[in-house]
Specification:
- The protein is of the alpha/beta class.
- Helix content is about 25%, strand content about 20%.
- The chain is built from nine helices and 16 strands.
- The strands form three sheets. Strands 1, 2, 3, 13, 14, 15 and 16 form a seven-stranded mixed β-sheet that branches.
- Bound molecules: zinc ion.
Length: about 350
């Protein structure tokens, strides 16, 4: 759609919203959402110099959230993203803030309480957006630990409020729809049984999430319906999940229009392809490759007993925007230019066409 045509369409939709209080049936998609990860609520570094106390760490989380709250209304970054967004104005209010796992440092009940208070699922206008959170390896350890139980309760409350549309039978994995885009949260990673020798509920048990994903996609999201998958582990070949599990995920999503896979765990800001170039011998040439995004982390690190490399940028947040025919991703860090600049900048910004599909 040309910029001028889109402006007229947006004007008409606004008029209908004002007049009738309802969105126009079949209105153009104008979807914004954010991705962050690896909060590690409850973390502290007693032995670093200077020490980072629990209170200081929590203040860091609050400050980071406050920076993220300033993203809506900002102009898009110069370059391909700004060009693609011409006529669509600045960053819109996000439908939600997705948190891709490691919500707590060590799955303690008190740490969950901190996370739940700082990242309320309902949001808290105007500075906190609705939160969609998944479990990471730091939140695992048993099927009935305090974080798992609390996540299930939170999912139930979100389902009741209409913020989620589908839950797995155990209440852990979830799905929802924003403006025709289907989101599936498989928590740790997409897989079914614990890895060999691992206990149920451990940090290497995906708890049936691949079956949940497969069933959900078959029922709700035949191609070209756009799909976004959220998991904690990165999609690269790592020691955290097996090559067979990665191949099973690839087989499960090959025939669907998965427009993005969002993840955490690596604490690195990345935009990579799944399968990666090194996988093609095993996965086969010529098949689809999926865009995977990691926003980095909330968590401060220390090195040789000292804070390193300083508080995160002061925030690391991927911002996505989808229309009916276009997908845009850019990384906001709150630095000098607001948007991330530096190594890999060009690869981190993504503009691509979307197959039409509701
Ligand atoms: Zn992790």
């Amino acid at each position: 759609m040309r910029a001028s045509t889109r402006r007229i369409a947006t004007f008409l939709e606004t008029l209908c919203l004002l007049a009738f209080g309802l969105p126009v049936l079949g209105a153009a998609r104008d979807l914004t959402f954010f991705l962050v990860s690896d909060v590690h609520a409850g973390m502290q570094y007693k032995n670093s110099e200077p020490p980072i106390t629990a209170a200081a760490y929590e203040q860091h989380l609050v400050d980071t959230l406050d920076v993220i709250a300033t993203i809506p209304g900002r102009p898009w970054p110069q370059g391909p993203v700004a060009e693609a967004m011409q006529g669509l104005g600045p960053v819109g209010k996000p439908s939600g803030l997705i948190v891709a796992g490691d919500l707590t440092q060590s799955r303690a009940a008190v740490q969950w309480k901190d996370f739940d208070r700082l990242f309320p699922w309902q949001g808290l206008a105007p500075k906190r957006f609705p939160v969609f959170a998944g479990a990471g390896n730091h939140d695992a350890g048993s099927k009935t630990g305090p974080v798992r139980d609390a996540l299930r309760a939170r999912n139930q409350a979100m389902l009741k409020a209409g913020q989620l549309s589908t839950l797995s039978s155990d209440g852990l994995h979830s799905a929802w729809v924003w403006q025709g885009v289907h989101f599936v949260n498989v928590n740790l990673y997409a897989g079914d049984a614990p890895q060999p020798g691992e206990k149920p509920g451990s940090m290497r048990d995906p708890e049936g999430s691949l079956t949940f994903l497969r069933t959900y996609l078959a029922k709700n999201a035949p191609a070209p319906t756009p799909v976004v998958i959220i998991q904690h582990f990165g999609l690269d070949k790592s020691t955290w999940w097996t090559q067979d599990e990665r191949r099973a995920l690839y087989a499960a999503i090959t025939n669907y229009n998965v427009v993005a896979i969002l993840h955490g765990h690596t604490h690195a800001i990345t935009h990579l392809q799944f399968p990666g170039a090194e996988d093609l011998k095993v996965f086969g040439q010529g098949g689809p490759r999926f865009d995977c995004f990691s926003a980095g982390a909330f968590k401060q690190e220390t090195k040789k007993g000292q804070p390193w490399p300083g508080w995160r940028h002061p925030c690391e947040c991927y911002v996505f925007h989808l229309t009916d025919n276009q997908f845009v991703a850019a990384l906001y860090t709150g630095g000098t230019n607001g948007w991330y600049t530096g190594r890999g900048e060009a690869e981190l910004q993504v503009v691509k066409a979307l197959s039409p599909g509701k």
